[in-house]
């Protein structure tokens, strides 16, 4: 069978390589996966069960249940102070992944360029490439806490640039783009007549009372922005596969047509659960509080390991850490740590190439006691390497 060039052009997944390597060991502590271990709120789980028992298990409209789109419109009003028409400006998707995919699909022609701040969530690079378009990366720096510099975005803009992907708070760095930076980016987007795909899936997982802002609320941005988000992180509902997009009506129309061709709709019991999730009856704040506690554990543990440095973790459940003082690249660190101590984590270059070769990403999607065990193993690993070096001298 002859596969398409597009299919063959996909880059083998680096996280998958580490994950596969980890399968060879027993007792692995897995810090690779961005998949919360917490259950969704009780009332949300009950709503899904009720839907199943009541036989609400068939297809819905391609754009999702209108009741859910109404609930999303109400949520958007609270989040952004803006009104969205549930019938024409919102689509419910199979996770934020379908939302991201369809947003890029509806905006990019082959040969177009999409600017993506790096390090970036791997899907963005792969999807842009699979559409025959070109991802153009803008590197962010640890000294800027990985916040993209607007002037560096501007340097990458060409006559082929169609859109900019923003992901604040970001996977893999946890970076949150400050309001003033969003103002400057919005200015560029208007000046060069671009669109924005704004992935806000981690917006409810920000710590220390931070409230991440959205480019959507900047003047003139509503007609240029597609917001990509969903229930996976905010309500710990990764496997339920529900997300959504807010965008101008013509874009939602083509996304809905395409959804009919690929998935029909998001799973119906999950859509009923999602309606319950957005209702006033739900208190999901335990999820953020739990991740804030874990974030604090990670920062405490890091204080005991001077060879690993962090620029802070203002949001998300990821830490992007510099391991250059260990004398190892991120990839060496990941592979050797797995072999020696059975802790799995991903090297930074997986998320943005050579510029991040000295970094690793950990996902702290497990409780503090398990995290402390992982850091104890990392300390042992570094101490044993140090001792080994001494022996050789
Ligand atoms: N965007 C980002 C930045 C993510 O990290 C993820 C999940 N890892 C998603 C979107 C997709 O989430 P979902 O489960 O809603 O498809």
Nutshell version of this structure?
With 393 residues, the chain is an alpha/beta fold.
Fold and architecture overview:
The chain is α/β, with parallel strands linked by helices and 393 residues long. It contains 13 helices and 12 strands. The strands form 3 sheets. Strands 2-8-7-6-5-3-4 form a 7-stranded mixed beta sheet, with helices on both faces. Helix 6 links the parallel strand 3 (113-118) and strand 4. Helix 5 (95-107) crosses helix 6 and helix 5 (95-107) crosses helix 9. It is globular. Residues 34, 95-97, 100, 121, 167, 171, 199, 201, 230, 232, 238, 243 line the site of 4'-deoxy-4'-aminopyridoxal-5'-phosphate (PMP).
Question: Mind sketching the topology for me?
Answer:
Blueprint: H1 5-8, H2 14-22, E1 29-30, H3 42-53, H4 66-80, E2 90-93, H5 95-107, E3 113-118, H6 122-130, E4 134-139, H7 150-156, E5 161-167, H8 179-191, E6 195-199, E7 225-230, E8 243-246, H9 249-262, H10 268-277, H11 285-303, E9 318-322, H12 330-341, E10 343-344, E11 346-347, E12 359-363, H13 368-392
Parallel strand pairs: 1-10, 3-4, 3-5, 5-6, 6-7
Antiparallel strand pairs: 2-8, 7-8, 9-12, 11-12
Residues 34, 95-97, 100, 121, 167, 171, 199, 201, 230, 232, 238, 243 line the site of 4'-deoxy-4'-aminopyridoxal-5'-phosphate.
